[in-house]
């Protein structure tokens, strides 16, 4: 405790007060001022970067919306105007993909799909094109203000479109082709690819999976009205 008493005596002495006033307090003031200035500068820089990022994203969204307006009037434009509009749409697509924002690629892919739909539906000033344009504009504005929510919506739409645009399963096509070949080999008749006529509800024989296949249920069935299309479908199975 002696060293603490010596420090207290020195601190309240004339020399201690002079060092405190002339050195310690100015040093602490400089350190505190530097910390405050760094925090203020950091906040200002973050606000400037956020503002610049928002402006860049807004410019890209504006370009996409302009491309959507051109796509909604696609069939009423001249070939030169279409070429110019397509060039602007490609520039907007690249601009969006280069944005360092979550979901930029999703937004670009979603916008490309919607632009293609609006160009197709723009024949005779279709109402569907205007409706798609309205949804297109609202979704892009939502992504501008809420990137994470917009990205989830874009991803959901893209997944749904990918599922809807999937082609027929190759296995199913092979099964249909096999059924057609079996029928042709048995009856020496080609299968007419026409819509299947549903059998009457009073038919006693329950339909098999081949009955619901247009390849396995040809219209050129047995001439016997009592058997109908079911007998023609069952004939290959009996062999």
Automatic annotation (TrEMBL):
Alphabetized, the UniProt keywords read: Membrane, Transmembrane, Transmembrane helix
Annotated TM spans: 20-40
Region annotation (Disordered) maps to: 193-239
Protein name per its UniProtKB record: DUF4760 domain-containing protein
């Amino acid at each position: 405790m002696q060293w603490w008493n010596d420090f207290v005596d020195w601190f309240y002495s004339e020399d201690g007060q002079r060092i405190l006033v002339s050195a310690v307090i100015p040093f602490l003031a400089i350190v505190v001022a530097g910390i405050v200035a760094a925090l203020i500068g950091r906040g200002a820089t973050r606000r400037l970067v956020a503002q610049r990022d928002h402006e860049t994203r807004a410019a890209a969204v504006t370009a996409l919306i302009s491309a959507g307006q051109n796509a909604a009037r696609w069939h009423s434009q001249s070939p030169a105007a279409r070429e110019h509009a397509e060039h602007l749409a490609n520039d907007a697509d690249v601009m969006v993909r280069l944005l360092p924002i979550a979901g930029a690629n999703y937004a670009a892919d979603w916008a490309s799909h919607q632009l293609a739909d609006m160009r197709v539906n723009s024949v005779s000033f279709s109402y569907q094109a205007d409706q798609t344009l309205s949804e297109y504009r609202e979704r892009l504005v939502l992504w501008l203000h809420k990137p994470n929510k917009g990205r989830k919506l874009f991803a959901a739409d893209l997944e749904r479109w990918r599922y809807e645009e999937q082609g027929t399963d190759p296995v199913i096509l092979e099964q249909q082709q096999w059924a057609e070949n079996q029928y042709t080999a048995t009856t020496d008749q080609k299968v007419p690819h026409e819509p299947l006529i549903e059998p009457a509800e009073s038919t006693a024989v329950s339909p098999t999976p081949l009955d619901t296949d247009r390849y396995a249920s040809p219209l050129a069935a047995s001439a016997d009205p009592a058997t109908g299309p079911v007998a023609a479908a069952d004939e290959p199975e009996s062999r």
